[in-house]
Amino acid sequence: MTPHVNKWLDLLDRAGWTAVQAAAGAVIAWQATDEVGWSAALWFVGGAVVVAVAKVVIGQRTGTDETGSLIGKPVIEPPPTSTTP
Questions:
Q1: Number of Cβ atoms within 10 Å of the Cβ of 84
Q2: Which of 8, 9, 58, 66 has the most CB atoms at less than 10 Å from its CB?
Q3: Is the pTM above the cut of 0.70?
Q4: Pick from 51, 52, 44, 47: which is nearest to 17 by CA?
């Protein structure tokens, strides 16, 4: 039995964490150099989020199941079956 995946929560989770990671990288780059301003940092984060959303949507629509996996195999394995009676 394939588990049910809430596609909206999956999208929010994956793209949200990408946004957090991109924002952390942008803040580090902004602090480490005078070359990166706030507008460049926002473009960096926005671009990463757009790519993350596109990847999730493509995975959800083209994968072998509804888990959003693009690697050809499900990323969620079925739960183990009990061997004891």
A1: 3
A2: 66
A3: no
A4: 52
